[in-house]
Amino acid sequence: MMVGQGLDLASLGSQLLVGLSRAMILFIVCAGLSFVLGVLRIPNVAHGSLYMIGAFVAFSFFTLFGGGSAGFWLALILAPLVVALVSLIAERALFCHLYQREHLMLLLFTFALMLIFGDLVKIIWGADYRSISAPALLRGSVSMFGASLPRYNLFLLILGPLVAIGLWLFTNKTKIGKISRAAAVDREMVGVIGINVSWVFAVAFVIGCYLAGLGGALIAPTVSITLGMDHTIIIEAFLIVTIGGLGNIWGALVGSLIFGVTQSFGVLFWPQFAIVFPYAAVVIVLLLRPRGLLKSVW
Amino acid sequence: MKRIVTMRSFVLGVALFGILLILLPAQAKARPIKVGIIDCYTGPAAMFCKEALNGFKLALDKINKKGVLGSKIEFTTRDTKFKVDIGLSMAKELVMRENVDLLVGTISSGVALAVSDYARREKVPLIVWISKSERITGEKGHRYVFSTGENTAMAGKAAGVALAKKPFIKYWIAGDDYEYGHAIANTIWSSLKQRKSAVKKIGESWWKVGEPDLVPYITAIMAAKPDAVIFAAGGASMVNVMKTSKATGMSETIPGWIHTATEITILRALGPGGPEGFMGTTDYLFYHPDTGANRKFVKAFKDAYGKHPGFSGFHGYITAHFIAKAFKKAGSLDREKFIDALEGLKIRSPAGKIEMRACDHQAVLPIFLGVTKKTPEYDFLITTDITTVTGDDVMPSCEEIKKARGK
Lengths: 298, 407
Fold this sequence. Notes:
The complex is a heterodimer of chains A (298) and B (407).
Chain A: H1 9-39, H2 47-64, H3 69-93, H4 103-125, E1 141-144, E2 147-150, H5 151-173, H6 175-185, H7 187-192, H8 197-219, H9 229-244, H10 249-269, H11 276-288
Antiparallel strand pairs in A: 1-2
Helix pairs in contact in A: 1-5, 1-8, 1-9, 1-10, 2-3, 2-4, 2-8, 2-9, 3-8, 5-6, 6-8, 9-10, 10-11
Chain B: H1 2-27, E1 33-39, H2 46-66, E2 73-79, H3 84-96, E3 102-105, H4 109-122, E4 126-128, E5 145-147, H5 152-164, E6 170-176, H6 179-195, E7 200-207, H7 215-224, E8 228-232, H8 236-247, H9 250-253, E9 256-259, H10 264-270, E10 279-282, H11 292-305, H12 311-330, H13 335-342, E11 346-349, E12 352-355, E13 367-373, E14 382-389, H14 391-394, H15 398-404
Parallel strand pairs in B: 1-2, 1-3, 3-4, 4-5, 6-7, 6-8, 8-9, 9-10
Antiparallel strand pairs in B: 10-13, 11-12, 13-14
């Protein structure tokens, strides 16, 4: 009924950019999930909880440092580190004893963790809606192609590729990155040649979870930080990881781009049924390529 | 011989104990009134439910000092997790195992409607305190269900009255894709259209509940250039709408309206950086009307829980007072007598006198319309230009209710 509303070049352009910026946060979170999935073979349902914790911790640092621009930047740096620390403790205390178990067990275990993290967040931060504001530099919107785009989304558009490059450098240029890539392909072989797989796993897990925390801290200024954030993101994240190819970081990037852009164009072309578009894209991809677009390591 | 004596004293002891057992209940104090509360204490809705419970507790503290029918009001809570099946089984458990005298809850209209149906079949009173579907006391209403909160019919009608006075012609409707979102959008639109036939709906967009990123929706709406946007959003989504409309610059160019956007829980979450000029309605404001009763309630609430009360805290508070007063009036714990007493009952509340309308069991609450604004007094926005619409003006008439219920 509303097809064709506002279909000029300006809104198309801005809608594309908005979709891309949404894809960047999705990519950051999903790359972490995919990395853990690839290296450790753990379908970490609690990944969404770490994202939620990242947002809540960002809120705490933001208020601790007075709530200004400095507060935002410090929160953005520190919150993912706190999440990384939490994940390190979880890995050393719990996960490292469970790697030999079957996937279903791990799935149930991480599901239990998700519930525990959810309740912990409620105990620590309460049920109130929390919010942090972007620094003055990133507030307001800029005019692009005659349509407005929030500055913060522009910031995400710059940061997303930087994270992607960082991940590429880590997996291709560092020793531990190379080992973890090798472990993703054939972990027995890595163990056979005498590498201590346990600490590789720990590092990979912490990096994956760091990315979840970073995603949470990044989304914090654009939404209300609330209980239940974990559920929303984890479903989308698993869909994206699946269409991209399980365990493949670049698959996560492709999947996020498809998800983000189909959503924002769906909203423009057919707003009443916009919800359907990204999921329809997922169905089409899986019909054509059941194992995902890029090579799955599973 | 010795054995016989022991035997005899044993029998005597048992007999005495038996007599005591028979006599005790008759002499014991009246039993406490048990209220079973089912509400959502997990997920994003938990905030409102916790606050309603806080308001309820605050009122009970005072009520129980004097006592009701020679005893106290006690309560137990159960978490519905916002799910109909869980809510229903919790309600059944409270009625059958905990033997509660009445049920109170919940934030989800879906759960409220399901439990209401159960309450009707089991003849257990249910007081709905947060959920806003007009069907609860409208077409699906019955003898055993009451509502102490405003509903979509009242809020929608009030918004229609207010928006009809504004110069806007082209509207866009956007919101959360669930019962509450569509219900409130429909009533506002029909109320507005009825008062001002020139208005045009140029588009609609609906996002899934919990959608974190609304920027694509808002930029698409801005591209369509409506005169104003009606947001049919609830809970945390309202915060997202207001943040996004500020970030995209929409709040400066296209006015927006949300029911309960002016509610403190939302404005407090936004902090001093919330968008000014956003229109909204709510049935309770902690600073308006500025009466002694309201100030006293706000102070007590703030002392107890460290923050100002919002509408759900207010609803919890008046619910406790309705329950206490109705039991006092009924003079017994009988459920049918309680219902008879509650019908048409008036209580004094922080926001003035409130009546429980007898014909549909809906509390007659005022609706406050206002616009968000920064003030130096608070570190969050409050509302100004407050217009009050009385409950009688926006509630469906008793005849309309009868017709809706098909009698």
